[in-house]
Amino acid sequence: MSTYRHTHSAVDFSVKHMMIAKVKGTFHAFEASITADPHDLTSAEIDFSIELTSIDTRNGDRDAHLRSGDFFETEKYPALAFEATNIAKTDNGEYNVTGDVSLHGVTRSETFTATYEGAGKDPWGNEKVGFSANGSLKRSDYGLTYNAALETGGVLIGDEVKISIEIEANIGA
Fold first, then answer.
1. CA dihedral sign, ordered 106, 4, 22, 109
2. What is the pLDDT of residue 4?
3. Are the beta carbons of 143 and 165 closer than 8 angstroms?
4. Residue of 111, 74, 82 lying closest to 94 (CA atoms)
5. Dihedral of the alpha carbons of 82, 6, 114, 140, in degrees to the nearest 10
6. Which of 27, 34, 128, 153 could form a disulfide with 11 if both were Cys (CB 3.0 to 4.6 A apart)?
7. Which residues contact 77 (CB under 8 A, 6 or more apart)?
8. Residue 7: helix, strand or coil by DSSP?
C-alpha cells in the first residue's frame, strides 16, 4: 500500500507560544510509501517525507519566518524525511514505530506511536486503510534554536513540537 498528498490524510503540529498557548499548524505537501500487511506492521517498510515549504499556521508572516534561515532554511533544507528502522507491536493495532528523522541537516532516531484505524472499501470500490501516528520532536535536537526571552521569564517558543499524522492509504496502490 502507499499514499501521498491525499485529502483524507493530514500532518499537523503544535508548539507552545509564550509558555501559555499553543500555535497549531499543518503541512499540506507530504508523501508516504508504506509496504506492509495493514493488520501487522511489524515488518513494514515506511518512508515519509514532508515538504517544509508547505507549512501553514494560518499566518502568512509567521509561515514566511518559519521558512527562513531563523528556522527551517527551506532553500537549503526543503524536507523532513522519516525512514522506519524498527516497529514493535504494543497492543492490538498499536505500535511503536522507530525511525530516522532527517531535518535541518541532522538525522536522529525518534519513536512515534501508531494505531491501525481500520480498513474498508470506498464508494468507487477502492480498498482503503487508515493509520494515525503521534509523537514529538525537540527543535533544539535539530539545530532549530531561534527563540526570544520573555521579560516575565521563559521563552517565546517551546522546544517540544507535538506531531499528529492521519493517513488514509490505498491498498495495493
1. negative
2. 40
3. no
4. 111
5. 40
6. 27
7. 52, 103, 104, 105
8. coil
